[in-house]
Fold:
Amino acid sequence: MFPTFFLSGFECSTFIWKDQGRRDLVAETQHRAHVEEDYAFLRSLGIAVARQGIAWPFVDKGGRYDFSSLDPFIEAMNRYQILPIWDLCHYGYPDDVDPFAPDFAERFAAYAQAAAEYVTPRIRGPHFFTPINEITFFAFMGGEWGWTAPFGTTNEQREKLRLALCRADIAAVKAIRAVEPKARMVHIDPLILVVAPRDRPDLQDEADRETYEDTFFAWDVVAGLRHPELGGSPEVLDIVGVNCYSFGQMEYREHGPHASLEPHDERIRPLGDLLSYAWERYHRPMIVGETSGLRDGRPDWLCDIVEESLAAVRNGIDLHGVCLFPAVDMPNWHTGEWLHNGLCDLVEENGSLKRVPYQPYIDELRKWQKILNRVTELDEDPFSDPVDLSDIRKAAERMKVSSDKDWC
Structure:
């Protein structure tokens, strides 16, 4: 499906943040200014696939579109032979759009069609899109926690926003495929586990509901398993992208975001088991859509992610890639501090953000590329020889890796 097993991407949120107004994370990380360098860096790492955002709020002016801001990205991707997964809505929508309005799905589908018409002739296929990134998490941020527009603060508002996003997503898939029938969709959401507090076992039902219902609700709708009147189907869902972070296993809180479990917490569930659960639910091709450790934990986290992924492959899941996200560092949305979660750290230098590769993380990537018989640097035509998944399965069997709870 992809030219390389390891993928990457760039933080591209365009939300209206609670106390800062409209934000543009592509600008905050200076990815726009460093696009040539950023894509050359991915090529040097043997990564030929990257999640790249299209900023809906900035290209859509009242239903009229100007995609010329994408040209430098397209030129760089073509030059360095990087295949994009186009992210059409990364938490942000135009100022004149109301996600609860009756025409929201129609407005988003029209934009998605226009975006597909612009990018598909300019990029060598196959063509991949993520219509709406993290519908479930977007609904929490904007519908219940009040972090981003539309600034909802109740469970009811979250559920209403979630369904509106699902409806728009399905409409967008169909609009994109009217332009490019062979376009593939990558539907991305966090893969999580929520457990009850030790002193509140009475909250276990609520924790289980979030783990086994809320986590999968959006995917279920897009797959046609819920609200079939919206037009979802397995083909619309297409590729399931699961985001895996250490803070994705949490202790339930009745109000606000949950508390992350510590690495040695006995309530942790092996990630390979969670991957297998998602596979059994949909039986669709899968990728790890985002993953990264923090600071000096990045190499160990990558090792654990790949081992757990291989354990799930041994259990039969159809895994097509692992996305090391982000390629370059990103700020904590709340504090602005650099997270140090990228393949490159960002260091301020004379008004510019210098890219500083984090070598231990890269060394760990190189180790796994060799174990999995993957390229460490792209050849002249990386698209000519897609990943042979039998290499991945053979490595999993050869290593006899199995899932465990150890994050250390």
Remarks:
- Residues 288 and 386 are 18 Å apart (CA to CA).
